[in-house]
Amino acid sequence: MSKGSPKMVKRFSKPIIFVHWLNAAAFFVLYLSALPMYTEYFDWLYAVFGGPAGARLVHRIAAVFFVLPVVIILFADPKSFFHWIKQTVTWRKHDFEFFKEFPKEFFGFHAKVPKQDFYNAGEKVNSILTILTAAMLIISGFVMWFPQYFPRGVVMWAYPIHNIGLGLSAAVVIGHVYLSIGHPASKASFRGITKGDVPEEYAKAHHGRWYDELKEAEKKNNKRIG
């Protein structure tokens, strides 16, 4: 670390970073390959995929890669995966209080956000919506891919559910991208999901409860060594 550079704290493991970007890339390809199937305004995209049959093939391959991150992380870093799930379903007073101040922070104004966990309340909402929309897309997509194995009524419902899941997931991604790239604090958060660490001051300001846990663990470790 060069003189004057901020102290960094580890946030995400390499497997988490890898599966995050694999999932993002798969979603992007899924979205692009799906557009010409939904509306004739994007028929020109068929040329990119070599025609309608090519677009369907690419869509199905991307669908496999969209599901693959869960399998990979369960083998590579299950601790981080289950920590994410636990955090997502754990809600306390400070999580709900987050939303009183979040609108100010969202638009770049000063906000007195209560101390947050490893994942703040906004990230927890994003996670819930991500899980929900992914389940809608994966389950309905599987039914659409193998309609011969399902009742006709189930197949008919799969199409509107897939469409709704696509619309909702696109909205979630837009909000996620803004907070990851366009928001004033995005530089630090983006570093976390690319290089795995974040400035200590960022951790303290945006994930105070997690930061306190780190400091407490550090003190205990120092006492043990001493």
List keywords for this structure.
single chain, 226 residues, mainly alpha, Fumarate Reductase Cytochrome B subunit, 2 domains, two-stranded antiparallel sheet, 10 helices, 2 strands, 3% strand, elongated
Fold-level CATH name of the largest domain: Fumarate Reductase Cytochrome B subunit
| Count of DSSP-assigned helices | 10
Q: What's the overall average pLDDT, rounded?
A: 90
Number of strands: 2
Main-sheet strand order equals 1-2
**What percent of the residues sit in helical stretches (DSSP H or I)?**
over 70%
How large is the radius of gyration?
21 Å
Report the sheet with the most strands, covering strand number, pairing sense and barrel closure: 2 strands, antiparallel
- The CATH architecture of the largest domain can be given as Up-down Bundle
**CATH homologous superfamily descriptor of the largest domain:** Transmembrane di-heme cytochromes, Chain C
Note the topology.
Layout: E1 8-10, H1 14-38, H2 46-49, H3 52-76, H4 78-89, H5 93-106, H6 121-145, H7 152-182, H8 186-192, E2 197-199, H9 200-206, H10 208-225
Antiparallel strand pairs: 1-2
Q: How would you describe the overall organization of this protein?
A:
This protein is an all-alpha fold and 226 residues long. It has 2 domains: 10-76, no CATH class; 90-226, Fumarate Reductase Cytochrome B subunit, CATH 1.20.950. The protein has 10 helices and 2 strands. It has a two-stranded antiparallel ribbon with strand order 1-2. Helix 3 (52-76) packs across helix 4 (78-89), helix 7 (152-182) crosses helix 8 (186-192) and helix 9 (200-206) crosses helix 10 (208-225). The longest helix has 31 residues, at 152-182. It is elongated, with a radius of gyration of 21 Å. The model has no long low-confidence stretch (mean pLDDT 90).
